[in-house]
From TrEMBL:
One of its GO terms (molecular function) is small molecule binding. SUPFAM superfamilies: Lipocalins. Residues 1-20 form the signal peptide. The keyword Signal applies. Keywords: Signal. Residues 40-175 form the Lipocalin/cytosolic fatty-acid binding domain. GO terms for cellular component: extracellular space. It comes from the Eukaryota. This is Lipocalin/cytosolic fatty-acid binding domain-containing protein. The keyword Nucleotide-binding does not apply. It comes from Panthera leo.
Length: 183
């Protein structure tokens, strides 16, 4: 009798994906992190994900980070969906977890997001985002900078994480400005 390969294949794929996922306790965070110092405009230099299909270059709709702001202890990410005839701003606010440099938030349907500020000199920033959507976990790692092309030292640190965690590079979309006013 030939064993069925379906369950073994599923197990192998699950283990492979698990290697790319890290628990929040395993993710390093910036010692002495000060959220107010990351306020302002940021450009995405590199982006990687545990899921190769997360951001398709063929998709006409793009999501890009514009800036990061704080209010009290909360951190808000200002994002914009852009595409053919579409431009919509989205603010995502996360709250301190009680652990240095770690924040969490949730949105419709019980989905959640955990954010770890892995490392920063406040001109460059390595960010880890763990999204949990209907039981699926996706890890995103981003290298952000105040100006392009960014610091080569920070790029090296970031690429080391990408290699170690076997992440998939994703397309980067930066926005020059907020959505134009409606006519």
């Amino acid at each position: 009798m030939v064993p069925q390969r379906g369950p073994l294949l599923l197990l192998a794929l699950s283990l492979g994906l698990a290697c790319a996922q890290q628990t929040l306790e395993e993710v390093p965070v910036q010692p002495g992190f000060n959220a107010q110092k990351v306020e302002g405009r940021w450009l995405t230099i590199q982006l990687a994900s545990s899921r190769a299909h997360l951001v398709s270059p063929a998709d006409p709709l793009r999501l890009g980070l514009h800036s990061i702001w704080t209010r009290d202890e909360d951190v808000t990410f200002v994002l914009f969906w852009t595409g053919e005839g579409v431009c919509q701003g989205v603010n995502v606010t996360v709250h301190p977890t009680g652990l240095q440099g770690q924040f969490q938030g949730s949105w419709e349907g019980g989905n959640s997001m955990h954010v770890c500020f892995v490392g920063t000199d406040y001109s460059n920033l390595v960010l880890y985002v763990r999204l949990e959507d209907a039981g699926e976990v996706t890890s995103l790692w981003a290298l952000l900078a105040r100006t392009t092309p960014g610091d080569p030292t920070w790029l090296g640190k970031y690429l080391e994480y990408v290699r170690e965690l076997r992440l998939h590079k994703a397309p980067v979309f930066n926005l020059d400005a907020r959505c134009p006013p409606a006519e």
